[in-house]
Design goal:
Shape: elongated
Oligomer: single chain
Number of strands: 4
Order of helices and strands: HEEHEE
Strand content: 25-35%
Strand order of the largest sheet: 2-1-3-4
Number of helices: 2
Distance between the termini: 39 Å
CATH topology of the domain at 7-76: Rossmann fold
Radius of gyration: 15 Å
Bound molecules: adenosine-5'-diphosphate, magnesium ion
CATH superfamily of the domain at 7-76: P-loop containing nucleotide triphosphate hydrolases
Largest sheet: 4 strands, antiparallel
Structural class: alpha+beta
Length: 102
């Protein structure tokens, strides 16, 4: 195995580093950090409103974090373009967009 491949295999697949998401005054995620390894199966648990869906939405790039970084396969995806359907004419149910620092 090449050195580059060995390094990639040793690194977590997904790194969430100090990610915060706010909706106006509401801080939905506050400096959340986690790592998920290749082949690892994890679950997010928490009461209603804890921020589970917001966490998935920020990992997928649907939301952009107010602070922190999302690293996938060693590449910074924090500013990953949101899916095109987010830019479609129909914004869906009346939910607000998260606030961004950038
Ligand atoms: N689009 C949004 N606009 C405003 N507030 C939101 C939005 N999405 C989630 N929230 C708020 O953020 C918090 C976390 O919500 P959510 O991620 O949906 O929690 P869970 O999925 O764990 O039930 C809640 O207080 C919720 O009301
Ligand atoms: Mg949810």
């Amino acid at each position: 195995m090449s050195l580059a491949r060995q390094e990639a295999a040793a690194r977590p697949l997904l790194e969430v580093r100090g990610v915060s998401v706010r909706f106006g005054a509401l801080l939905a995620l506050h400096r959340v950090s986690l790592e998920i390894g290749r082949g690892e199966i994890v679950a997010i648990i928490g009461p209603n409103g804890a921020g589970k869906t917001t966490l998935l939405n920020v990992i997928s790039g649907f939301y952009h974090p107010y602070e922190g970084r999302i690293v996938f396969e060693g590449r910074d995806r924090t500013r990953l373009a949101p899916p095109t359907w987010r830019r479609s004419a129909s914004p869906g149910p009346s939910r607000t967009s998260p606030c961004s620092r950038a």
